[in-house]
């Protein structure tokens, strides 16, 4: 029997993890159904009074920024303050797709930055997947980086129309997406009802928590200080104030708090925290892999409107997730929101629909977490040289690689070194604010429901959903 409620993320339940602060033994409340930041906020002696750069948040964004700053200039003093523990946020819970995906299409980027701006972004994202792989090799981060590409199946005639259009679009923009016929798709992944698939080589699978832990270890080796259990109340350049009352004086500050950004004063409408939920099976025997495929560790999904994503893990399970959990009024983030039994049920049913053989195997883990979405779905990197305050985020569900690009870019901006990265279209992007409540709650949840209805409409009519166009309008991409 499998437990009915949530559990630790699969990635945190790792007997091979290197020694370090463990989520279950450190100062954070860890419950059966979720994990919360403590508000106790005790002063800690390891918070330095001064630093050249003070970074808030020890997810990928904060840690990549620290890593590239210290690599470029080892004389800098860099401190990372984390409310809970390294990888507490989306960086320790995600689906482990290191992809060149980006939530905004190149046409939208071209409309503001010209076609060359859009093409430079496509190329930078592809290069980022390679960069991440080479840092893992150089720093000996044992996170199972395997670049097998991604297969997105077309499992109905309507999905095949969208898939072929995606391949044509990919050909124009050079994003690497190609169409595979049903046999070629089946050779990579034997899902049910295959009409074909798109394949894109710019995607690797990783174990997300090993990546974030390995990155934290690399930052410490370079001389960076990471303080866990250190929630920050106010982050301005010049001064970062912790909930404990301690203050770090720093010439540069970086806010790398993604979904939690809405908790800072004045930023309630900057980012909407939207939940994505995941499950994992028990390790699967070789006979199942002979049947399913994924021999090159391809990540996988299909072309439905509700986002789904899966990977074959380093220990031969399937980790599989999807959106569809509700957005919570007032941009609230609570431990219990990580666990939505009905959504877990839908995700497991979808997984069994893709691979019926998996009905024979237990689902051992269920978890979730919030990701960050700006009103126009546009990620951004910003830095104000006058104030010394930088930030990056709004990656939607495409942050595993994009955070690396953000970290490299922030490192150049903070050091005042103009580079091709600092000229990319997302640098300095300003998104409009989300609507005040209750409009925000209505709008975000309507978008989620429209995606579900569009999939039902396609199943009923066999044609591309008219509601899909409404969805594009709602999500602005
Ligand atoms: C379930 C799930 C699946 C996903 N799957 C994928 C995927 O397969 N591929 C992909 O590309 N993207 C995926 N994403 C998105 C991706 O994980 C994120 O975009 C990325 O991890 C964001 O990294 P980050 O460092 O900006 O934010 P986070 O990892 O969320 O880090 C923010 C950190 O800031 C800390 N913090 C917050 N407030 C404070 C404060 N006041 N003081 C101090 N610290 C604070 C938090 O504790 C947290 O550790 C997924 C996300 C989720 C939730």
Task: Write a structural description.
- It contains ten helices and 20 strands.
- It folds into two domains: 40-145 and 205-271 and 376-432, FAD/NAD(P)-binding domain (3-Layer(bba) Sandwich); 150-200 and 273-373 and 436-475, D-Amino Acid Oxidase, subunit A, domain 2 (D-Amino Acid Oxidase, Chain A, domain 2).
- The two termini are 42 Å apart.
- Residues 19-40 have low confidence and may be disordered.
- Helix 2 (106-138) packs across helix 8 (399-415).
- The strands form five sheets. Strands 3, 4, 10, 11, 12, 13, 19 and 20 form an eight-stranded mixed sheet that branches. The chain has a four-stranded mixed sheet with strand order 7-8-6-15. It has a four-stranded antiparallel sheet with strand order 16-17-14-18, with helices on one face.
- The protein has helices spanning 60-72, 106-138, 157-173, 182-188, 208-221, 286-292, 341-354, 399-415, 439-461, 467-475, and strands at 29-31, 34-36, 50-56, 78-81, 97-99, 150-154, 178-181, 196-200, 203-205, 225-227, 232-236, 238-242, 247-255, 272-281, 299-302, 308-312, 318-322, 363-373, 380-384, 389-393.
- The protein is of the alpha/beta class and 477 residues long.
- Bound molecules: flavin-adenine dinucleotide (FAD).
Secondary-structure element order, as H and E?
EEEHEEHEHEHEEHEEEEEHEEEHEEEHHH
Let me know the CATH homologous superfamily of the largest domain.
FAD/NAD(P)-binding domain
Which value, in Å, is the CA radius of gyration? 21 Å
Could you say which small molecules are bound to this protein?
A: flavin-adenine dinucleotide
Q: How much is the average pLDDT? A: 90
Q: What share of the residues does DSSP label as strand, in percent?
A: 15-25%
Largest sheet: 8 strands, mixed
- Low-pLDDT runs of 5+ residues are 19-40
User: Which topology of the largest domain does CATH recognise?
Assistant: FAD/NAD(P)-binding domain
- The number of distinct helices, counting runs of at least 4 residues, comes to 10
First-to-last CA distance: 42 Å
| Residues in helix, % | 25-40%
Total number of strands: 20
CATH class of the largest domain: Alpha Beta
Corresponding CATH architecture of the largest domain: 3-Layer(bba) Sandwich
Question: Which geometry do the CA atoms define?
Answer: globular
Q: How many domains is the backbone divided into? A: 2
Class of secondary structure makeup: alpha/beta
């Amino acid at each position: 029997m499998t437990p009915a409620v949530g559990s630790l993320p699969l990635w945190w339940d790792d007997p091979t993890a290197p020694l370090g602060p463990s989520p279950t033994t450190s100062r954070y409340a860890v419950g059966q159904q979720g994990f919360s930041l403590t508000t106790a906020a005790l002063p800690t002696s390891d918070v330095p009074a001064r630093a050249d750069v003070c970074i808030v948040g020890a997810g990928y964004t904060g840690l990549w920024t620290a890593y590239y700053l210290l690599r470029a200039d080892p004389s800098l003093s860099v401190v990372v303050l984390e409310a809970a523990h390294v990888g507490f946020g989306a960086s320790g819970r995600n689906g482990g797709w290191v992809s060149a995906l980006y939530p905004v299409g190149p046409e939208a980027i071209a409309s503001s930055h010209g076609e060359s701006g859009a093409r430079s972004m496509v190329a930078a994202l592809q290069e980022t997947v390679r960069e991440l792989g080479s840092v893992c090799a150089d720093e000996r981060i044992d996170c199972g980086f395997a670049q097998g590409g991604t297969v997105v199946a077309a499992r109905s005639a309507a999905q095949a129309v969208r898939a072929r259009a995606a391949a044509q679009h990919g050909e124009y923009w050079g994003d690497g997406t190609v169409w595979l016929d049903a046999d070629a798709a089946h050779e990579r992944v034997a899902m049910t009802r295959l009409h074909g698939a798109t394949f894109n080589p710019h995607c690797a699978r990783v174990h997300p928590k090993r990546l974030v832990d390995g990155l934290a270890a690399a930052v410490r080796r370079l001389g960076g200080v990471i303080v866990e259990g250190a929630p920050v109340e106010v982050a301005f350049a010049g001064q970062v104030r912790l909930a404990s009352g301690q203050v770090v004086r720093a010439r540069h500050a970086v806010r790398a708090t993604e979904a939690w950004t809405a908790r800072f004063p004045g930023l309630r409408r900057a980012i909407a925290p939207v939940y994505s939920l995941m499950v994992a099976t028990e390790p699967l025997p070789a006979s199942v892999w002979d049947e399913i495929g994924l021999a090159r560790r391809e990540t996988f999904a299909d072309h439905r409107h509700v986002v789904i994503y899966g990977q074959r893990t380093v220990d031969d399970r399937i980790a599989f997730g999807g959106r569809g959990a509700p957005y919570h009024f007032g941009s609230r983030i609570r431990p219990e929101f990580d666990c939505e039994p009905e959504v877990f049920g839908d995700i497991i049913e979808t997984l069994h629909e893709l691979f019926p053989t998996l009905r024979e195997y237990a689902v051992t883990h269920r978890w979730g977490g919030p990701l960050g979405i700006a009103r126009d779905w546009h990620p951004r990197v910003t830095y104000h040289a006058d104030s010394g305050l930088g930030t990056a985020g709004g990656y939607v569900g495409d942050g595993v690689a994009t955070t690396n690009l953000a970290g490299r870019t922030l490192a150049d901006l903070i050091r005042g070194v103009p580079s091709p990265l600092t000229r990319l279209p997302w640098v300095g992007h300003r998104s409009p604010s989300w609507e005040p409540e209750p409009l925000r709650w209505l709008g975000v949840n309507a978008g989620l429901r429209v995606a579900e209805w569009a999939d039902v409409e396609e199943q009923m009519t066999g044609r591309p959903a008219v509601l899909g166009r409404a969805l594009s309008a709602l999500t602005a991409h």
